Amino acid sequence: MDLLPQFLANGLVIGSFYALSALGLTLILGLMRVVNFAHGELYMLGGVLGWWVTTALGLDFLTGLALVALVMGVFGWLVDRVLIERIRGQGEEPGILLTIGLSIFLANTALLVVGTAPLKVEGPVSSGPVFLGPIVVTKIRLFAVAVCAALIVAAYLLIQKTRLGRAMRATFQDPMAAQLAGIKTANVYACTFALGTVIASLAGMLLGSIYSAQVSVGGLVSMKAFVVVILGGMGSFAGAIVGGLVLGVAEALWGGYVATGWVDIIGFVIVILTLVFRPYGLFSKRAERA
Amino acid sequence: MQFERNAILVALLAAGLLPLAVHDQYLLHVAIMVLFYAVLATSLNLVVGYVGEFSLGHTAFLGTGAYAAALLSTQLGWPMWATIPAAGVLAAAMGLLIGSITLRLQGPFFVIVTLSFAEVLRLVADNWVAFTNGPMGIAGVPQPAWLAQAGNLATKQFFFYLAWGVLAVSLYLAYRFVYSNAGRAAVAVRENRYVAQSIGIRPFRYAMLAFVLGAFLAGMAGGFYAHYISFVGPEVFRFAFMVSMIIMVLIGGKGTLVGPLIGALLVTFLEEYLREAKELRLSLFGLAVMAIVLFLPRGLMGFLTTRREMRTPPYALSRAPRGAAPADWRSQIRCALGRGGAILSGVSGAWRLGKPK
């Protein structure tokens, strides 16, 4: 029983990572109605790029993070303008297929370029332990949680306080009305996709410094992010955060008390149960269109 | 309808004659895989093309069938002619279970939950070592005893005809479903759920029928795979199978019976041809999927039928004299629905198609 605080702490740490990974997905899904199956691959690209800029270019972690954000932002913007724009307004299925194709392409091209070996992103702080009462956390994890929180707050401020954020929310509520009010919705969509891409890739780089960046990780990340998004409700900012924390804690407790081999099953069981009993998530404000 | 039936019959006949002409073992193996994938693509097409929902969890049924056949034959000693149908039935039962949950959902929810189910099954196969032997898989799934003396070529020929038989059964069932009242009702639901509901078609029921039939076919394919490869591991649930199936259905054209066959033929040969460059192949597949979605959204068959429809103006149908032979129902529905305010004629058209029994 004395391990409970430790499990909870581990769960909350992992949960905040899940929340950040899922945030980009929920933004894209909520605003653009695009189910982005390439989300995990964007995360992976962030990790691989992060590894490249910190080792090959020799930048320090935070500069590297900024560079990755810039590159991936441009990439996300281009993906939207070149690919997703063509299928906008055709319902969900083309989007699903397109992003599945994109994810296959990205994952395997990355595999061709950097291979299967795990790539360790050089972290900014040591991985030594910190003792907080009965709990042990490594320094780098605390650092990562802090960056996670900062990024989440930054994204929140971007959406709530800036002109672009207002345009995003207007488009979310009613694309047609937003367009009539003079908002360039195509631009807003591209920016949203870029924002989602940036958040996903930063999560990838951040976690690459704790675990390691791996080319094959995309599918798992996508699945976890979907679990979080479904649990929290599609397009819900708070839902993504709470969903991430819930999933992290649930996995940590399950892994601690029941069986480690079955940890990944938790997420899928949560998804199935959520969709059966509360199909629009815990926090969805509005009913889904029929 | 006639065209599809004739095309299928010709394709099956040609395939059946193939082993008489080809005695190369490798080519026969490729041909067997074409047949195997054709069954899978046909079964996925029933869900994707006729229910109109996108399932990413079809490997669940393939895997269930493969494990069922492997376990039944190694643990209980069932002969092969019993395990393959049993694999289909068990997969259909799995389809009933999964479908009863997932078919209440639509769009992205459906996609993710079907994928979740496949992943859950993969994790079970990976972790429940006592039952499935975990990551080691089940080796030595028996093949009929007389094949041991018959030599390699005869073995390949035997399995070719077995796969051919499974495919023939699958196509027969799929054909009977698609051109039955139930199949037409499913199409009506796919094209417009609300019009279909308004004339008394229950979407859930027909979606379920197609889903379970698809699961049954995929399960039989899995059973065949278990005996042919003689090994079953958690890889049968892997996403690569799913990717191949999706591409086959999409390239060929979903919602047609011939399309998936063309897709299976093309993709299997392409896969073999590009085997040297494994990762490059998958990269190219990714590009192919994107290109199809952008430029050929209805697949090769859809491309052909669109051209044919363009030559015969679609509205000619509604001007046809009463009592004329019933025209192609799909274009009838489409032209009825396509015109604004013509819901009524859509209802009457769909009523004629999906009259409740």
From TrEMBL, chain A:
Pfam family, one: BPD_transp_2
Membrane topology, from the record: Multi-pass membrane protein
UniProt KW RNA-binding keyword: no
Similarity section: Belongs to the binding-protein-dependent transport system permease family. LivHM subfamily.
Residues annotated as transmembrane: 12-35, 96-119, 139-159, 188-213, 225-250, 257-277
The keyword Transport appears for this protein: yes
Listed name of the protein: Branched-chain amino acid ABC transporter permease
Keywords for the protein's UniProt record, in alphabetical order: Amino-acid transport, Cell membrane, Membrane, Transmembrane, Transmembrane helix, Transport
Signal peptide: none
UniProt subcellular location: Cell membrane
TrEMBL record, chain B:
Endpoints of the signal sequence: none
CDD domains (alphabetical): TM_PBP1_LivM_like (cd06581)
Cellular localization per UniProt: Cell membrane
UniProt membrane topology term: Multi-pass membrane protein
InterPro entries the UniProt entry points to: ABC_transp_permease, LivM-like
A Pfam family this chain is assigned to: BPD_transp_2
TM annotation in the entry: 31-52, 59-78, 84-102, 109-125, 158-175, 206-227, 239-270, 282-304
Matches recorded under PANTHER family: HIGH-AFFINITY BRANCHED-CHAIN AMINO ACID TRANSPORT PROTEIN BRAE (PTHR30482:SF10), HIGH-AFFINITY BRANCHED-CHAIN AMINO ACID TRANSPORT SYSTEM PERMEASE (PTHR30482)
Protein name: Branched-chain amino acid ABC transporter permease
Organism for this UniProt entry: Pigmentiphaga daeguensis
